[in-house]
Design a protein that fits this description.
By secondary structure, the protein is of the alpha+beta class. It has 3 helices and 4 strands; from the N terminus they run ββαββαα. It has helices at 43-49, 82-106, 122-139; strands at 16-22, 29-37, 61-62, 73-74. A hairpin with a 6-residue loop joins strand 1 and strand 2. The longest helix is centred in the middle third of the chain and has 25 residues, at 82-106. The radius of gyration is 16 Å and the shape is globular. The relative contact order is 0.17.
């Protein structure tokens, strides 16, 4: 996993936004990043400078509507055609699985609530919690969605 880099100019900010990416097939956290102040950059700019640089040509990222604008990012679509309904059902399955990972991270209170430690240790603590969560995911994998995805 990549280490989160913080810049000195953000020392006065109260809320830093981490990002987490999980692999569909392995149930593992494959990327952590962020540490930028909420609202300083839009979500798509941040992901284009970090996660999307590491993707292989055939890989894609499923994300919410804050990431619209890059063909490598799959977002929920508006409309009710059969193709859009299938797409959105798949997106919902991916999202529910990722929210399970977020819940496991929240067990350690790194995604919920205010960080009460020294700011210099946020990176270390967030990385350690992601590693512990990965170990827990190996012992208790996420629910399998591959058989429920719609490809017609």
């Amino acid at each position: 996993m990549d280490q989160i880099h913080f810049e000195d100019r953000w020392i006065g900010w109260d809320i830093l936004a981490p990002s987490i990416a999980t692999a569909i097939g392995t149930s593992q956290i494959v990327f952590i990043g962020g540490g930028t102040p909420c609202g300083l950059h839009n979500n798509l700019d941040q992901v284009q400078k970090t996660l999307l640089l590491d993707l292989e040509e055939d890989e894609r990222v499923a994300a919410d509507r804050g990431y619209v604008g890059d063909v490598r990012v799959i977002t929920k679509l508006k409309g009710s055609t059969p193709e859009i309904v299938k797409h959105n059902k798949n997106w919902n399955l991916l999202g529910s699985r990722h929210e399970t990972v977020n819940k496991r991270m929240k067990d350690f209170r790194v995604l919920a609530g205010l960080f009460r430690g020294r700011r210099e240790r946020i990176v270390l603590i967030f990385t350690m919690v992601a590693q512990i969560t990965n170990v827990k995911l190996r012992r208790e994998p996420l629910f399998d969605i591959t058989s429920r995805l719609i490809f017609d």
